[in-house]
Amino acid sequence: MAFDGRFLCSRVGSESGKFVAGLKILHFLHVLGLKIYLFAVTFWVSLLLLFDLCGILWVITEITVRVCHGGGVGYSRGEEKLSFMCVF
Prior knowledge:
This protein is mainly alpha-helical and 88 residues long.
């Protein structure tokens, strides 16, 4: 019985095709995971920056109210000292 190389080549070809397909799937999942991770990090960082911006605007508003209008909520109208202790 003679050795048939065609069967061996077709078998190796189908196995390497499965291997390449598996690599493509793994690559796709890896890229998808990175995109999800980057989206999550970007989302949380932007959310934190938004809260920081709101906090900064709140501090500026409170200082402006206390300096320009002679006090704020819970403070006497005559108190106009500009310090960070009176903000909280």
